[in-house]
TrEMBL record, chains A, B:
Protein's name in the database: fumarylacetoacetase
Taxonomic path: Bacteria, Pseudomonadati, Pseudomonadota, Alphaproteobacteria, Rhodobacterales
Domain Fumarylacetoacetase N-terminal: 21-117
Binding site for Mg(2+): 230, 250, 254
Organism for this UniProt entry: Ruegeria denitrificans
GO molecular function, one term: fumarylacetoacetase activity
Amino acid sequence: MTLSKSWVDSANGATHPFPLNNLPYGVFSADGAEPHCGVAIGDMILDVTEAEAEGLIELSDEPLFDLPFWNPLMEEGPAVWAALRDRLTALLAEESEERGKVEPLLVAQADADMHMPFAVSEYTDFYAGRHHAQNVGTMFRGPENALPPNWLHIPIGYNGRASSVVVSGTDIRRPWGQLKGPNDDTPRFAPSQRFDIELEMGAIVGTPSDGPISVQEADDNIFGYVLLNDWSARDIQAWEYQPLGPFQAKATATSISPWIVTKAALEPFRCDTPTREVELLDHLKDVGPMLYDIDLSVIMTPEGKAATTIARTNYNEMYYSAAQQLAHHTTSGCPMNTGDLLGSGTISGPEKHNRGSLLELSWGGKEPLTLDSGETRSFINDGDTLVLTGEAKGDGFVIGFGDCTGKVLAALDTPYQRN
Amino acid sequence: MTLSKSWVDSANGATHPFPLNNLPYGVFSADGAEPHCGVAIGDMILDVTEAEAEGLIELSDEPLFDLPFWNPLMEEGPAVWAALRDRLTALLAEESEERGKVEPLLVAQADADMHMPFAVSEYTDFYAGRHHAQNVGTMFRGPENALPPNWLHIPIGYNGRASSVVVSGTDIRRPWGQLKGPNDDTPRFAPSQRFDIELEMGAIVGTPSDGPISVQEADDNIFGYVLLNDWSARDIQAWEYQPLGPFQAKATATSISPWIVTKAALEPFRCDTPTREVELLDHLKDVGPMLYDIDLSVIMTPEGKAATTIARTNYNEMYYSAAQQLAHHTTSGCPMNTGDLLGSGTISGPEKHNRGSLLELSWGGKEPLTLDSGETRSFINDGDTLVLTGEAKGDGFVIGFGDCTGKVLAALDTPYQRN
């Protein structure tokens, strides 16, 4: 597939994240208006709320876009998803005869604020990257026992906290928590000193289900993908996570990129999961290419200093696809809803510079990173900004996600002194 | 506190669960109407949607009750909660001068169907019963290592699945799942053979918070309580729960009783947590009596057979109060929303007949129970109905919750054959 040209000039650059091939969905505000739905095209946003109001898009008797979330469109199902994409493509293509009506509905991204693109129903996070699991397991249990016995048989996941999911650009407050360091006799309540990122992709459920579904059905039900940073307090996690898993260590915030990149836009980049080390049971078997070839990176910028790319990896390093994760999620009969968000798990590759968390990059703090600014880091310092980027590379075009950014602020003083 | 008398005669019985002292909130449908808000009084339901429409209740410019959930009232906060309770008490008290207007708004509970009383925002389940943790830990790790190191310092919890919470009376379908029995060389996909209950109380967050809150603030933010049965597939749980906690084992269903019993109704029954075995850190310290003296029981009824009460215990056996759990839940800055549901964890007492799960009652299947029907059970059979009951006993009155009931149906055949 090659670049599809648009009459929006900026969308035609070979490295622009938002060509006509992409058309990702976000929620923006500009000129004092309330947040509502928009579609990125080049450097601009098409105000689809206005386009619908003016009759340029007609998909439903009820307005779908004059809202601060894309959930109603997601609920409409694959036929309407395809109809919207076709219509947007027709309106914005180079040869469009409706340019005159559409052009006044464009807003510069530079003039807009971005908001959460959808209402998160529930949030689940997985632990399904082979290299990440191997790295973390080796640090904690040694290389022979790195993988738990179930790891090659099911995508291990836990329920996260939907209320903590925020859009890129939201500042992240360093959390307090109960923790017990290796030199502590007793636990104490303190700000986390091992605050970390996790480089992930998030899959968004479009079509709900009520009962077990197959891997193919799961793939069909997914609406799109975002970049996802699962901020993690490693010292809080170490103290709390046995026996029932991470809880407060993962509840401060999870950041996502502002644009939902649709499954349709990613079709040319589908790829297979890695070779199975153990044959999966039938209900989880691969039934087609359901991962995507998406280059990912992590950039760290200390306050007022130069930026350093600290990791580069690819979504194709995952052991389980989002479709396999979603299918597993329904095995017990668990109902899934429009707006459910599934984090892939940390995406690391085979080499040291492919690691998607500081825990792995600094090997638990034993091998601090040296940044381009000359500073060193084992975990995140106050004032550091962390950026995740992602792009799928086509023939003369790319599909970008928009950055997933967060700046870490100092912990507030003693939150319990006020009582 | 003694019985407050109502002109609704059935509410004046000394053992009736719904006297004027209680006034629990539910969602009902009758006579073909859509589900909407009602309040239990004796054998009747006061249709508060109608009462509001007729101007008998005026709390807000917007209607609060013509809805299938109580969330808008919960969002209004403690002053409005108190005003509603005062107004309902005035309308329904023996000496009410408005009986003539109110009486036509009563519907017999026998003629109504009950629905979920609130929209569950997110669901968290704890592991905060001392006897339960001791029992389960002893089975899995021996009596010396029964309690994890963190257990006496924080209320261990995990995020559950809000989409799986159902109202009492909903049938429960035995789940499939991946499991690996002690005699299996490899995992297999099969219906759970160790399907279990967990006897719990659920606390409902009324007032939202965005950042760490104290134990006192947490108690203030709680709106009310329900009975809660956290259905659990022990064989699925055993295979999946390391390292990130229970996932599909707990996602089939969680049943709650249909009436929200308000914190106000339970005030006379407040009691302290047990003596601390280890001093808690300041942010979790008890600041008043925040447990409640509520008798609880579990009744098992095989299809077509006699019922057996298989467990009796009390909510005052918990080591951590719901307020402490909620405060802990916010330590990392996790935002909490109206409608968040917090399961207490399984409530067991010191004696064998006080145990709140079949796992404990049958000691992992090694000591099957003998029911009054003569049958034996280690876990739940298809066709078994499980009922949780709860009541707080006052001086000449009780505060009841309404049963929390579920019948277990056979697993559906091979859900993946259809593909």
